[in-house]
Amino acid sequence: MTTKPLAGIRVLDLSRILAGPWASQLLADMGAEVIKVEQPGKGDDTRRWGPPWVGDSGEAAYFLSANRGKQSVTIDMAQPAGQRLIRELVLKSDVLIENFKVGGLKKYGLDYDSLKSVNPRLVYCSITGFGQDGPYAQRAGYDFMIQGMGGLMSLTGQPDDMPGGGPVKVGVALTDIFTGMYASNAITAALWQRQTTGTGTHIDLGLLDVQVGVLANQALNYLTSGQVPQRLGNAHPNIVPYQAFATRDGHLILAVGNDTQYQRFCTAAGAPELATDERFSTNALRVANRHILIPLLEPLLTQFSTDEWLVKLEVEGVPCGPINTLDRVFADPHVQYRDMAINRQHASAGEVKLVSNPIRFDGVAMNADSAPPVLGQHTEDVLREVLALDDNAIVRLRDDGVI
């Protein structure tokens, strides 16, 4: 592929931390030119969210996870001259992403209402904790608290009456990541819409809205039945058996998705009578009689090691898998074959390892060519090439602390 799908689109990224940068990294991977505007001398907070650090560069691994393929430009937006530079960049951009508090950019003249008059075709994406309006709109929002407020933690963890029971957050900032994915989807849709209308739009994304939106079947379980879903540990609310089981030497995830797979599992486990037992013959019955079936299955799973089960159940076509630590994930032959770890050349750390974008177009993974930037790495290049500023103008801006 010689031209990526978003080639020719310019994104001005005023966001930091994770949700906004995740969105702009996806756009960069798809070929967009992303200009990341950062505060001089400080930059994105996640640059300091370590250890671990990448070599001796002082760059946190956290920052590298979400900023591939971008150009870093340092501009002090608190100064009028900095605001003018950003407005000039807006004039030459297609998209702006920001995650300031509601109204936080208005005092700089960088809110949507101010900038749409500068560039009516601008797609302006605002990411906040709670959206642009509503009783919580002025609150700050962070992934962890939103996982709690949005119901995810009420569904994650062991039941209260089990050892270790209680709510647990997901091990990555999933709400931020989902918000970034929704943002990139919304932005590409708005760019397509612009081809018809000729004008941009203001996209409003709140972390709490996103978290509620991705409750999926659990939300519908509640809205349909009125019953509040409870934590089930590694079990599934709508499918049985679909959970982790102890094996002779570890654990196995058994993911039986239909009645035929259940019958094949019972045969492989040496318990064909459980396949014909009228209490367990359909998934609905297995869900209703979960408390009876699971204790019958547990001793069967301890007959063999995890690896033995993987071989045995693969032959039978029963979905299953191990619970891998990350060293085993990146050593997995399939993960390696799919090139999910990639290398890029970093300006100060040398070659760095990154995680590949999983999207492939015509067999080609959508990954930006460049590593995450060091702070201010592209300031002068962007000011020269995009805004056509000369050396004297750039020197004055630097002397005045604007860049």
Q: What does this protein look like?
A:
The chain is an alpha/beta fold and 403 residues long. The protein folds into two domains: 10-214 and 336-399, Rossmann fold (3-Layer(aba) Sandwich); 242-323, formyl-coa transferase, domain 3. 38% of the residues lie in helices and 15% in strands. It has 18 helices and 13 strands. A six-stranded parallel sheet has the order 3-2-1-4-5-6, sandwiched between helices. A three-stranded antiparallel sheet has the order 7-8-9, with helices on one face. It has a two-stranded antiparallel ribbon with strand order 10-11. Strand 7 and strand 8 (251-255) form a beta hairpin. Helix 1 (19-29) packs across helix 7. The radius of gyration is 25 Å and the shape is elongated. The model has no long low-confidence stretch (mean pLDDT 96).
Distance from first to last alpha carbon = 36 Å
Largest sheet: 6 strands, parallel
CATH topology of the largest domain: Rossmann fold
Second-tier CATH architecture of the largest domain: 3-Layer(aba) Sandwich
Broad structural category: alpha/beta
Low-confidence stretches: none
The largest beta-sheet arranges its strands as 3-2-1-4-5-6
Mean of residue pLDDT values: 96
Q: CATH H-level name of the largest domain... which superfamily?
A: Crotonobetainyl-coa:carnitine coa-transferase, domain 1
Share in β-strands: 5-15%
Rg result: 25 Å
CATH class of the largest domain: Alpha Beta
Shape: elongated
